[in-house]
């Protein structure tokens, strides 16, 4: 069964550094999402992306965040200048219009630790 | 108004028992209500989902009950097994919002004791 993959699985970075989290969507999926989950808390929507542009972003997704699909396959989340409170598990999810985007398939996540 | 409230926070059930997790929402634009199961170190995986045009959906041991007037829905796990031990999240989405961006509940950690 096709899966969403994410790299790296873990990343430790210093506050103020830039990080790029990568996602490889399921091959025929065209709708992409990033969510985050702070340890012990609920999963929160960050951004949705379709046709090379952001569809919607949450209040969390401020100017330090950006997304792109640089090579037509990978989908990336960049955090420009990390803060301690960015420490979380970041999940990529993808969907297809065939089921009206209702089913979102989540990757295994990248655990980001900002020191 | 975007929140989905979930209870209980944690639940311990004996093997063979029934696990019940409840969620409530405010946003009447929500029109799709999935439940996700998450094991430690893994991403959430879709378990079962319902649309508001039906009051109940059953898949194997898992049943969603939906009460549109009360804006509540619940997950019932029949004959709970130790392998069901995981965190369960209810969620909701709207066709009008962010390509169906999911709004998650706070999660319920289920432990099924052998």
Whole-Å distance between the termini of chain B?
39 Å
Bin the helical content of chain A.
under 10%
Name the CATH class of chain A: Mainly Beta
Shape of chain A: globular
Indicate the CATH topology of chain B. Immunoglobulin-like
Specify Rg of chain B, calculated over alpha carbons: 14 Å
Q: In angstroms, what is the radius of gyration of chain A? A: 13 Å
The name CATH uses for the topology of chain A is Immunoglobulin-like
Low-confidence stretches of chain B: none
Fourth-tier CATH superfamily name of chain B: Immunoglobulins
Q: Total number of β-strand segments of chain A?
A: 11
Largest contact between protein chains? A-B, 28 and 25 residues
The count of domains of chain A is 1
Biggest sheet features of chain A: 7 strands, mixed
- Please state the second-level CATH architecture of chain A: Sandwich
Helix/strand/pairing class of chain B, anyone? Answer: mainly beta
């Amino acid at each position: 069964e096709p899966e969403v993959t994410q790299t790296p699985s873990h990343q430790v970075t210093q506050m103020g550094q830039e990080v790029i989290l990568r996602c490889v969507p399921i091959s025929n999926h065209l709708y992409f999402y990033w969510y985050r989950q702070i340890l012990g808390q609920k999963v929160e929507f960050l951004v949705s992306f379709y046709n090379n542009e952001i569809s919607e972003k949450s209040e969390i997704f401020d100017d330090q965040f950006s997304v792109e699909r640089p090579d037509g396959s990978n989908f990336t989340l960049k955090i420009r200048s990390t803060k301690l409170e960015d420490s979380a598990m970041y999940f990529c999810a993808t969907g297809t219009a065939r089921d009206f985007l209702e089913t979102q398939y989540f990757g295994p996540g990248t655990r980001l630790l900002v020191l | 108004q975007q929140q989905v409230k979930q209870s209980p926070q944690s639940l311990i059930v004996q093997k063979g028992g029934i696990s019940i997790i409840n969620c409530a929402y405010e946003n009447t634009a929500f029109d799709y209500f999935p439940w996700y199961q998450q094991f430690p170190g893994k991403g959430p995986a879709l378990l079962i989902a319902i649309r508001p045009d039906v009051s109940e959906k059953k898949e194997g041991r898992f049943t969603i009950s939906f009460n549109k007037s009360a804006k509540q829905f619940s997950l019932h796990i029949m004959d709970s097994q130790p392998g069901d031990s995981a965190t369960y999240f209810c969620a909701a989405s709207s066709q009008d919002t962010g390509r169906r961006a999911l709004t998650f509940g706070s999660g319920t950690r289920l432990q099924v004791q052998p």
